[in-house]
Amino acid sequence: MTKTIIMALLLSLASHSQARLQALNDAELSNAHGAGIAVALDNFRYLMAPTSYFEQVGISPAGACSADGNTSGNASCWRRGDLRWYGINLSGAGSGGSHWDESLCDASSLSCPRGGQINWFSPFDNPYVMRAWSPRGMAWDGGMINQDASSPDKTIYEFLAPSSQPDYTLSFWGEIEAGATRNSATQMLTAGQGINNPSGGGLLKSQTIIRGNAAGSAFRLFQHTEPGNETFGMLYHSYLRGDFRFSVAQASGASTDAIGQAPVFEGEEGMIFRNVEAFLPFGQLYYQSLVLGPVGNSGDFYLELTPIPNNPTVYNRFYGLDAGDVRGFETARTATRDWQTPCASGDAACQNYRLSHGYVRYGDWYPAMAGWSAQGTRETLNASNDGIIFQARSGSTFNAFAKRPIRIDKRGETSSMHQTQNYNCDPNNPGVCFGPAEGPITNGPGNNNRYYTTDRVNLGSARIEGLLINQFHMESCRPGVC
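and the corresponding structure tokens:
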């Protein structure tokens, strides 16, 4: 009896489940309403196998090299190059992680390429959003679009990243194979010869690790408004922040020059960018778009960022900050001075300027100008926590401020009258270089033989402010043509 009752209950539950899993028809879907689709991702991680790859394969170019070594057949010529990107990873930046060969490492540092899950990658109250709506904007001819919210002119589709995210790790390792001869359509990777290529060339393995986030980025699809070119347009506003590391040195005891085999990269070596913040605006609603199109009939294509309209209604609204600033100096000066000050509520000129002008900032140091206080702290000679850094592998050194063979004056180094800095550096006392006595700076040839041996050098901070992309055009070129 008990078994009969239990079975009846199970059948009843199953029937209710079936009744609720009904396919939605068009009529039912038309009754659904909402502002968009929210994608909340908690405990998220995306991992490709360390040996899974994307490949860009070349062919033997015209005028290819016919020999190797110091011979005429290896001069002023080109070799086929194959590129591969392995093990693309999007994972946590906390404790717990692994190298490309699955050995363990600490993912909270730039020494470890793969981490665990990302907590609150896009939480329910700040998710990724996909939606169709009708925001205001300006047309190519300067007219306003969607001024009346109750009767919009155009609708766009957009994909928005969360406004705030925890730092996570984006990484991959790669190969550049010069002088490749493998038939990628019929032969496995093992047919490649790597550094043992008898036709010359060789193999370079590299690693890229980015530890940060892309919160605030936006991708939009809309109709471009240029007369006669009302085509499918795209817009991408890219926000990136975090630390970047690019390295090539492999760890002792875990290195390999075999094509397709995952190495372990040395934990410190590389070119490192600390405290990076970048905003790159590619396109604006609705007058500047990323557009795609065909080139010829052979499968090539172009990607173009259309030019800013030569229309004062457009460029005065979006690209001028100070009224009456015909030369742009006041606009640039004001933007540089006030970069950390939020736009005032209702200050459309400031808001439009910052939406259309990008920036790339490496490091926190911001040199003071007349009457303006500096931001951040200037990096010391061998600082590792900020700015742009060259780092040798553990136990190795290199010569910094080394003797350079460059001749700025055609009469030779001893005749150059450019300003030169005579550095007198002590790696054990970095303040000697950047202390109160930084000289002498002379209008003369200077001494370009000064250098010091170190395992790390910090190049300081660097900034690009007010980055305005007027237009660019890029075309693909099928193999054997370029």
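(Above: one complete record from the training split.) The longest strand covers residues 232-247.
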